[in-house]
Design a protein that fits this description.
The structure holds 2 protein chains of 2 kinds. By secondary structure, chain A is an all-alpha fold. Chain A contains 13 helices and 2 strands. Classes of the chains: A mainly alpha, B alpha/beta.
């Protein structure tokens, strides 16, 4: 039956192929455009020197450092919080309990909140109320708030996807709950955690609106986490929307941002697999 | 083996923590300088002024190593609000202070003109003030009505809170609610890109930025206003009617570091920076 349908009606497969090609082409176009415009400006000096003349000349050294610091703060805060909350939701609360439903519902709402709202919240809470000012710390913490829902929900889904047999088996062997979680369930849920990490990092590294109000606009090399530091995305936004003649630097910065995203994702995926998945495979 | 790994992790975490801790005092001790100027200066406000002040700030920092100048953006309204409630040491606005803002102190550091721009392919080469008003209020909605080709007019307007918008409205005696905009934009460069990408669009942007874009082959054209060509020259000599002052704002009469920075930003030492950012220096 299935074979006959394939021979008789090639249209569906043609359409599906065309759509897949279209999606790939869109991606290649964007990447090709970035390479075409950006690669000429790219050099070691561009990656290491400070911007000059409002970013038209010079490089992106301090901005690259700020971006990595902001991302570092964001991940250092959101990973432990996210994994523990996911554990609580998946392992320690009943599916039907009002508490679990409330937390899950609010996380889903939070995941859909526009980033500018997080920016205003971050500015009011971290920068003004807690007195952190425009700083990398404010920016990183604001991003952590943004990333948390994504991270929690996908890690939770990963934990739920672990077959109940694992838990029963562990209980039968007399393993404690902590050991089961740490040595068995969490490593087995790595795929979910990685999905959350990749999505979360993607959202954090591409963030502009929330960071203008929190980590700020200063393009000097940051001396501490309490310094204001411009992220790559804010730099690209400013160069393309506010600085005449900043386009070539904007393209080169966008190229660096894309490569950085791939790099950070690769490292995160590899580390997660290395630390966790290795524990349950012989 | 596992213990070693955990130990390594803990020590890395501790190292990072200590690194963060130790950064703060060291940056403060570095601030001790013989000329007495030290500390951190926070400026917020207009996105038009921010790149200029950031560059001025860099030169100020290089002359006074103990000083850090932090520039943040967000629009003139925010600059004025932040200067008033003390969130920033100095606010930045791309206009002069209004009479009702006389509780604040304003210091002009450069001038900028606002010019009407259309696409280069647009055959219309001048518009009267009344025609511009009619276009922005929707009474004229086809280029044919102003001796152009038969095409609908795309009206590009600035977003609320932008001082370019306020100046434009004040000059033409319009209210923003009267404006029938097709596109609402934020920064200058966005306005130029919108008009360059649409042969039927009309917009208004900073003349310095527009001149820079035209010299770099962007297909836009500046229209004269009231018969006066929109050039930086005419902004400088005060002939061009729609121009503005880029202003630094403080709550009280500036003292110490604030005063030193404002004086520096008004001095001829920074005229080359002002020009390189496509604005017109003020000669005192």
């Amino acid at each position: 039956m299935g074979d006959r349908a394939k021979i008789d009606n090639p249209l569906p497969s043609i359409i599906i192929w065309a759509i897949a090609l279209f999606v790939t082409a869109a991606f290649c176009w964007i990447l090709g455009d970035l390479l075409w415009h950006g690669v000429g400006k790219l050099s070691w000096a561009f990656l290491t020197t400070a911007p000059q003349n409002a970013g038209r000349d010079g490089g992106i050294g301090p901005i690259l450092v700020s971006t990595c610091l902001i991302l570092g703060v964001c991940m250092a805060v959101s990973l432990p919080l996210g994994i523990s909350t996911a554990m609580l939701l998946a392992e320690f609360t009943n599916d039907e309990s009002w508490f679990g439903r409330l937390v899950r519902r609010s996380l889903d709402v939070l995941a859909g909140v526009p980033s500018i709202v997080f920016g205003l919240f971050g500015n009011a809470f971290f920068a003004v109320k807690l007195g952190l000012g425009f700083s990398i710390l404010s920016g990183g913490l604001t991003l952590a708030c943004m990333v948390l829902p994504i991270l929690i929900r996908s890690t939770e889904a990963g934990l739920r996807a672990v077959p109940a047999d694992y838990r029963l088996g562990a209980a039968a062997l007399g393993l404690s709950r902590t050991t089961t979680l740490w040595k068995l369930l969490l490593p087995a849920a790595t795929p979910g955690l990685i999905v959350g990490l990749v999505l979360g990092i993607g959202r954090a590294i591409a963030e502009t609106a929330a960071l203008i109000f929190t980590s700020g606009y200063v393009d000097r090399m940051p001396e501490s986490l309490l310094d204001s530091g411009r992220s790559l995305s804010v730099h690209i936004f400013d160069l393309s929307m506010n600085v005449a003649g900043g386009d070539s630097s904007a393209y080169a910065s966008a190229l660096v941002l894309s490569v950085l995203l791939l790099l950070v994702n690769g490292i995160a995926t590899w580390t997660a697999q290395f630390w966790l998945a290795r524990r349950i495979t012989p | 083996m596992k213990k070693l790994k955990n130990l390594a992790l803990i020590s890395i975490a501790l190292g990072i923590g200590l690194g963060i801790q130790s950064c703060n005092p060291s940056s403060q001790t570095a601030a001790q300088k013989p000329d007495g100027l030290q500390g951190k200066l926070v400026l917020t406000g207009s996105s038009t002024v921010a790149p200029l002040v950031a560059e001025i700030g860099k030169r100020f920092e290089s002359e006074h190593p103990g000083v850090r100048v932090d520039v943040q953006t967000g629009g003139s309204s925010r600059g004025i609000a932040d200067a008033r409630n003390g969130v920033a040491n100095i606010g930045m606005a791309s206009r002069s202070l209004k009479p009702e803002e006389n509780d604040l102190q304003g210091f002009a550091i450069a001038r900028d003109g606002i010019g009407i721009i259309v696409h280069k392919e647009n055959s219309v080469s001048s518009l009267s003030n009344q025609q511009i008003i009619d276009i922005y209020t929707g009474k004229i909605n086809n280029w044919q009505q102003v001796k152009g080709k038969n095409a609908p007019i795309t009206v590009v307007n600035k977003a609320e809170g932008r001082s370019t918008l306020e100046l434009f409205l004040a000059y033409f005696k319009l209210k923003n609610s009267d404006v029938k905009a097709s596109v609402v934009i934020g920064d200058n460069q966005q306005g130029i890109k919108t008009v360059a990408g649409n042969p039927n669009a009309i917009g208004y942007v900073s003349i310095g930025t527009a001149e820079f874009s035209i010299n770099n082959g962007i297909p836009i054209e500046l229209l004269p206003l009231n018969g006066i060509a929109a050039t930086t020259e005419n902004v400088k000599n005060g002939k061009f009617p729609l121009s503005r002052s880029l202003t630094l704002i403080t709550k009280t009469q500036p003292q110490g570091l604030d005063k030193a920075f404002i004086e520096f930003a008004q001095s001829p030492q920074v005229h080359d920076i002002v020009k390189s950012q496509d604005f017109v220096p003020i000669s005192k």
